[in-house]
Specification:
Blueprint (H helix, E strand, L loop, with lengths): L5 E4 L2 E4 L10 H5 L2 E3 L2 E6 L2 E5 L1 H14 L8 H14 L5 E9 L13 E8 L7 H6 L1 E5 L20 H13 L4 E5 L5 E4 L3 E6 L2 E4 L10 H12 L4 E3 L4 H5 L3 E6 L3 E8 L2 E2 L5 H14 L6 H4 E3 L3 H5 L1
Parallel strand pairs: 8-9, 8-15, 12-13
Antiparallel strand pairs: 1-2, 1-7, 3-6, 4-5, 4-6, 5-17, 6-7, 9-10, 11-12, 11-14, 14-15, 15-16
The structure holds 4'-deoxy-4'-aminopyridoxal-5'-phosphate.
Length: about 300
């Protein structure tokens, strides 16, 4: 990974190499962490964080799900993110806040372990590759099913639950594919290992509903909103696996993956990225880069040394 200079740890900036935890930290053993993946984009007015408030609200909800009191307010975390981006003098970057049960107690009852908060920012290009964004990627349905809602709530973004995505990712990557798609316990399409999924058929967008064991993605929400604004119909309903193979277009959405077309699923060729995927992808980047009427509502501009010097 591309290291930056500083990491924010429990209230202060420390050198990247010094941001360490004790090996007996609770989260390291039991996955008791919640986190966010956020991006800032380079704009003509300096870096701008995309939908920061929505990400911090989701972080609070994820923490509450696991009875983890976040020791900082939303405004304090927002200020910390601005401070870290500025300290690292980054233009576009990935932002990773992590709230976790730290060192102090062992065993499965976590409520007496301290809650630590760290946040890192670094340069991270297209998660599924620039070529993937342009030409699409090949995906495969994993044999591992998405964890069911009555086992671990998919709507909270917690560290431990990602073991499910990691098994699916390893399986499909070893089989030569770029991304995994997981079905839920009912056999319907849930999501990618780290993305939501959209199917286009006869000009209509379909995406699995929140109850289908998916993470309520902020990029998913953005695309639903933008598509409706463009006059497109978006339906949230269960998607049987076979529908993916005969779709006109399929794409995945996520903060890391952005809006990425799929060109093949389980050896069924979907072909070049289609016109609706292209249109929404272009609109998404216009919004994130501060070139769209919706940018004002969704971008949080950061004062950095480079910007201040301009
Ligand atoms: N589903 C899963 C399983 C994810 O990990 C992510 C990434 N956070 C998403 C969907 C997309 O969510 P978002 O658009 O908020 O990044």
């Amino acid at each position: 990974m591309k290291e930056a200079a500083k990491i924010w740890q429990n209230g202060s900036l420390v050198d990247w190499a010094d941001a360490q935890v004790h090996v007996l930290s609770h989260a390291l053993h039991y996955g008791t962490s919640v986190f966010e993946g956020i991006r800032a984009y380079r704009t003509d007015h300096g870096p701008a964080v995309f939908r920061l408030d929505d990400h911090l609200a989701r972080l609070e909800r994820s923490a509450a799900m696991y009875y983890m009191p976040v020791p900082y307010t939303r405004e304090e975390l927002r200020a910390a993110i601005h401070q870290t981006i500025a300290a690292n003098d980054l233009g576009s970057c990935y932002i990773r806040p992590l709230v976790f049960r730290g060192y102090g107690t062992m065993g499965l009852f976590p409520l007496e372990a301290p809650v630590d908060v760290v946040l890192a920012t670094w340069e991270w290009g297209a998660y599924l590759g620039e070529a993937g964004l342009r030409d699409g990627i090949r995906a495969k349905i994993a044999s591992w099913r998405r964890i069911g809602n009555s086992t671990i709530p998919a709507t909270a973004k917690a560290g431990g639950q990602y073991l499910n995505s990691i098994l699916a990712k390893i399986e499909t990557q070893k089989a030569g594919y770029e991304e995994a798609i997981l079905l839920n316990e009912q056999g319907y399409v849930a999501d990618g290992s780290g993305e939501n999924i959209f199917v286009v058929k006869d000009g209509i967008l379909v995406t699995p509903p929140i109850g289908a064991s998916i993470l309520e993605g902020i990029t998913r929400n953005t695309i639903i909103d933008l598509a409706r604004e463009e006059g497109l119909t978006v339906i949230e309903r269960d998607i049987p696996r076979a529908e993916l193979y005969f779709a006109d277009e399929v794409f995945v959405t996520g903060t890391a993956a952005e809006v990425c077309p799929l060109n093949e699923i389980d050896e069924h060729r979907l072909g070049e990225p289609g016109p609706i995927t292209r249109r929404l992808q272009e609109r998404f980047f216009r919004v994130t880069e501060g070139k769209d009427p919706r940018s004002a509502e969704w971008l949080d501009f950061v004062e950095t040394p480079a910007r201040a010097a301009r």
